[in-house]
Amino acid sequence: MDTFQQINKPVYVLEEQRLRNNLSLISEVARTGGIDIILAFKAYALWKTFPIFREYIRATTASSLSEAKLALLEFGSKAHTFSPAYTDYEIDEIAHCSSHLTFNSLSQYQRYHQRVRQANSEISLGIRINPEYSEIETDLYNPCAPGTRFGVSADKLPEILPEDIEGFHCHCHCENGSDVFQRTLTHIEDKFAKWFPQIKWINFGGGHLMTRKDYDIPLLIQILTDFKKKYPNLHVILEPGSAFGWQTGSLVSQVVDVVEDKGIKTAILNVSFTCHMPDCLEMPYWPSVRNAKVIEGRYDKSIPYLYRLGGNSCLSGDFMESWQFDHELQIGENIIFEDMLHYTTVKTNMFNGITHPSIGIVHLNGELEILKDFGYEDYRDRMD
Ligand SMILES: Cc1ncc(COP(=O)(O)O)c(C=O)c1O
């Protein structure tokens, strides 16, 4: 496997071939299932690659004014927008940039629905529902946990929906398989099917990880086909993010120093977990490192070539352990974190002013093009 010898600074490297593989699988599912699958910008928003996406999909989903603008101005079609709470100072522009707009609550609907339709008479409005069922085990990512701030539960929804509500939106998956969707759907139907004759579309959110190797695609198609037969008036939308960026590239970094304390060796890198791979600390989630083995549990000094990998920020907890290599790590050597495209470049920060990794793409002919380098001005301009 490529160890990117030619790279000597940190770069997120997107591989076009892998991206196209995901896109063609996703567009085939959409076609066979007779649904729309749209890209969630919250997971992936590298807009210079949107021309590639446009070959496979038609629309995107936004969760803020900036994402909605990106949809219209850079992707070239209006967004399906959901935000937990719209504001007086942004709602008109969001409405202008959106083809579909979902309200999180009935109070937000009351406050803004007329204004939204004034700003965009073509827009289709929806309401987020809370099915009160989710198999997500990590609370940080569970939108259906008791006390959730997301969506309206069935007991709070009026028998007759407001006349201009045309769709339901729910999101209750995270990196899940189609078996989870199947079980979740029974809860959604039990609670909300009585309203289905009143709406035109239903968006089952993100978290459908259809590009993962073991994902059961035939089951997904079956679920979608059965659903369509039962409710022919409903157009189905899925809005995954991770599935598009899944295993499409890596973060290439370099060893800058190796330090040791109490027998624990840390290779300090020119990237940071907290700045450039934040989900690793949040989830927590142990990334694969190319040509190294994750060793779980406490650091075991007796294992040869075992290293913690440490970030270059001053946060004490900016490290993860442990990986076993097959040699002693050398200064300047590449450390390659796999699958670092989704939920990274959209979430990174410039804490400590640490230089942000560049963003590059390996084209189909094997050539690496750097799409963006970051420098002092990027750090300064965020705060000017
Ligand atoms: C409303 C909504 N839609 C879509 C997504 C995308 O989910 P994923 O990237 O897991 O597919 C999320 C993720 O949090 C979400 O909250």
Automatic annotation (TrEMBL):
Keyword flag Transferase: no
First-tier enzyme category under EC: lyase
Binding site for substrate: 279
Reaction(s) catalysed (UniProt annotation): carboxyspermidine + H(+) = spermidine + CO2; carboxynorspermidine + H(+) = norspermidine + CO2
CDD domains: PLPDE_III_CANSDC
Swiss-Prot/TrEMBL GO biological process terms: lysine biosynthetic process via diaminopimelate; nor-spermidine biosynthetic process; spermidine biosynthetic process
Listed EC numbers: 4.1.1.96
InterPro entries hit by this protein: Ala_racemase/Decarboxylase_C, De-COase2_C, Nsp_de-COase, PLP-binding_barrel
Needed cofactors: pyridoxal 5'-phosphate
Membership in a protein family: Belongs to the Orn/Lys/Arg decarboxylase class-II family. NspC subfamily.
Protein name: Carboxynorspermidine/carboxyspermidine decarboxylase
